[in-house]
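Need the bound structure for pyridoxal-5'-phosphate, inputs here:
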Amino acid sequence: METGRAPIYLDNAATTFPKPPGTLQSMAEMFSRVGASPGRGGHAMAAEAERLVGETRRQLSSFLDAPDPDRVVFTSNATDALNLVIQGMANPGDHFVATELDHNSVLRPLHHLAEQGRITFDLARFDDRGFVDPDEVERLIRPNTRAVVVSHASNVIGTIQPIAELGRRCSERMVPLVVDAAQTAGRIPVGLTACNASAIVFTGHKSLFGPPGIGGLVLHPDLVVRTTRFGGTGIDSRSLEHTQDYPYRLEAGTANLIGILGLSIGLDHVLQTGVEAIHTKEMALLERLRDGLSGLRSVEMYAAEDLTDHVAILAANVQAMSPQDVGAILDRDFGIAVRVGLHCAPMAHRRLGTIECGAVRFSPGVFNTEEEVDRVIDAMSVISH
Ligand SMILES: Cc1ncc(COP(=O)(O)O)c(C=O)c1O
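Answer from helper R.:
Posting the output first, comments after.
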């Protein structure tokens, strides 16, 4: 059925769309002026590219409250950054703690190392409201625990974990906390000090409004992460040893300059709009959606009764229908884009009892409108009738 109306994008937890007005134009304008490989070649354009990259490191270090811009490391996304930090910290015999809410970008690197017999790991459970208990995380810490890795906010049910308290418990036990801020950076305040964290992983293409292909992490100066990828850095090229100076200790090869420029432009937008204003707007839309859906008898929502300490993510199912069918009808008949399935977070779905088919995830963004949310409620009303 052709609705004749503009499509509604409610899949911002996967990647934000659209990007703020002017983002692509600014990226194109900057990249057509400065397209050299940053820091390589010793010519003026390479130096200018390096300056812009350094500027973005400074911008991110200030945004994520990291004391040293050189400890801002660029990767291709959050997955890449999580692989880098987990594999760069793990030593044979180490133990890690993660949570049932974590994304496969945490669970799979841990599982891979465990399969090889190099590490063991435990997962902290979450309660019926969707929160991990710091007492439980602390109980899981062992003398050989190398790090605790936690999704700051669940990408399935949106709950924001008590990260400062988790960080406090970790630092008391001298265990580094790695925060996966893929769903929070740009939406709620995230900082190394506020989280009592040793590392914060971010991705560019979600709430920082950059393009896909850019992400990274910020590191506390006390955290040592081994180099696990080796190659050209443009410095100390005579040596076959990869430099141990940050950030190039963890970066190799030609940088994603256009991605870094896009991330910087996206972050400018976040700073101009204000994290709090973005979160407030998104949560108002989520609440409207939750309230609308709660009037539909055959719609079940997960961990959505109280939206305190949530980001704008809502998982739901329609009784006797698969989420895949619901998503297909929303898309085909109503032009509404949502994400169905397991959302790369199988343990979360196992705990919610939805491991077979997953759920329908609605994730409004700052560019959605109340009118669009009302159309989604109307569509769900028709589907669930
Ligand atoms: C909580 C969480 N962690 C990590 C990731 C991975 O992010 P990326 O796709 O940028 O690697 C995602 C993406 O959906 C996520 O939601």
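Comments: The longest helix spans residues 44-63. The mean pLDDT is 97.
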